[in-house]
Structure formats: C-alpha cells, structure tokens
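User: Sequence recovery, please. Input:
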C-alpha cells in the first residue's frame, strides 16, 4: 500500500513557499524565529523563509557551501560545510565556529548532513560530493580513504561509527534513539551500494547490525526525516516516500522537482518542509517530527 492518506491532513496540497535557489538542501525549522533556514549549495548562500510574513530572504552569503543542519539543545545550529570540510556551529548571534574538521591527521571529505543524538552527540555523514563536484565546494583529495559516518562529542571527540556505506548522505534517529537511518547516494542498484536507506542499532557510541531498510529506485535517497511514530520520510527523485518502521512503504507524494532533503517543523511540528531543487515546499501532515534531540 502506498496511499496512506491518513498521514496527511484532509485536502492537504503541496504548497510552494519560495523559489529561486539552484540546489536546495539542509532545511531546518527554527522555532524561536518561526522560520525555515536552508542551503542553496551551488549559490553558496543560506536562505530563510519566514512563516510570519511568508517571504524568503538571504540569511548569509559566501558560506563555504553549507549543506545539512540540525538544531542543538542550546538553540545554536550545527551545520555541515563542504568548502571548509568541517562541522561547524552558528550561534544565535550569528557567530560561526568550527566543531571538527579532522579525523586524526586527515581532513574530512565534505560533511553533508547531521543529526543530534539523544545523548547530545552529533552524528554526521562525510561523502565526497564537496571535493569532487566543483559547484558544491572545492576540488580536493580523499585524505582518509573511503567515506564514513562519524560521531562527535565534547568528551569522546571524533569516532568513526559506520564504514560500510559508499556515499553516506542523509541521517536521522528513531524516536527512541535506538536506531539510526543513513541514506546511500551511490549510483548502484540491486543489493550493492547505492539507493538504499540503511538502518543500524545504536549501542552507546557505536552503530551495529547494519542492514538494508528500504530502497529508493527513482533517483536517490538524500535527506530523511523521522516522525514521532517512527516512520521514515525520504527524499527521492520523484517526490517524498514514507516508510513504516518495518520498511514497508506507506505513502508516496509526488513533487514536481527533485527532492534533496526535508524536515518537520511549523508551530505544532506537523508541517513537512521539503527542499527540492529550486524551491521550498510545505505539506501539512497528521504526525510531527521525532524531535529526538530535545528529549531530556
Ligand atoms: Mg544531503
């Protein structure tokens, strides 16, 4: 079944809220501002859509190709920078500082997306797009070899947690914090790398028992979001696909542009904001985001 319309409010229609970007990524709802912040990666800028006025503006320019972001518990924004090859923080006053840029002596590739774990650590993906695609960063070398998923915390530093994904990209936690989902945007199909959303059990600071969770066969799964009931909402070439915690598909919502990433937000957490190529869209749902990072 791929038409569980109960997940959408009656009569819900896809709304285009803003347009004019080149490649939209990394949307994040900022509750204090009642705004969505997202990246236009090739445009090297961060955009902002204000829920109060319904207008779009440029938040910052010359941002060194930021990509995904997450809200930290202190209200600051943790974000990935392709150009600086690092995870960084933007404080509410606008100050940007480095969190981590190296694994041992090696520079990271180009951090892509980040999620805050229930224990407050940051889990982020490190594929190679920002060092192999000149319009999304600066050409560079893979300094530590392959691509990985890392966990960073103040006390433990940087730890490699997942090393069996070709191009790890989107990342999100289950509501109970026991599972982490990671997408693989490699080009393969079948049981090999690429097109899969992978799932892992979390055991303290490690991820175990990696397995295929669901496959996106039209385009690639990039950013993902998990709702309060544990369903996984995935980007794809043709729209948004929603999967039950079992991995079975529940709903497909076509979007007229290639979807790169999505996030829950809005005043009640039930709006799905979709970053799709040139535009930001909204879809009203009957669920809300998992909000794992804000649990005590
Ligand atoms: Mg991504």
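Assistant: Recovered sequence (296 residues):
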């Amino acid at each position: 079944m791929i038409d569980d319309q109960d997940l959408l409010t009656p009569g819900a229609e896809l709304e285009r809220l803003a347009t004019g970007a080149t490649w939209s990524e990394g949307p994040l709802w900022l509750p204090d501002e009642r705004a969505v912040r997202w990246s236009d990666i090739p445009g090297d800028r961060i955009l902002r859509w204000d829920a109060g006025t319904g207008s779009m503006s440029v938040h910052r320019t010359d941002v060194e190709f930021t990509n995904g972001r997450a809200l930290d518990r202190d209200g600051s924004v943790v974000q990935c920078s392709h150009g600086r090859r690092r995870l960084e923080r933007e404080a509410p006053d606008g100050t940007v500082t480095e969190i981590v840029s190296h694994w041992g002596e090696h520079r990271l590739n180009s951090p892509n997306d980040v999620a805050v774990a229930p224990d407050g650590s940051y889990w982020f993906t490190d594929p190679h797009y920002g060092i192999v695609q000149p319009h999304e960063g600066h050409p560079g070398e893979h300094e530590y070899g392959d691509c990985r998923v890392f966990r960073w915390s103040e006390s433990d530093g940087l730890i490699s947690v997942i090393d069996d994904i070709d191009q790890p990209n989107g990342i999100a936690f289950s509501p109970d914090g026991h599972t982490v989902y990671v997408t693989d945007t490699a080009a393969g199909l079948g049981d090999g790398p690429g097109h899969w959303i992978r799932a892992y059990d979390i055991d303290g600071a490690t991820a175990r028992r990696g397995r295929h969770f669901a496959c996106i066969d039209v385009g690639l799964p990039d950013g993902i979001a998990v709702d309060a009931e544990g369903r996984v909402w995935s980007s794809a070439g043709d729209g948004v696909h929603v999967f039950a915690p079992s991995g079975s598909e529940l709903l497909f919502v076509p979007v007229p542009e290639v979807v790169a990433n999505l996030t829950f937000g809005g005043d009640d957490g039930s709006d799905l904001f979709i970053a799709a190529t040139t535009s930001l869209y909204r879809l009203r749902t009957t669920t809300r985001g998992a909000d794992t990072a804000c649990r005590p």
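The chain has one domain: 5-284.
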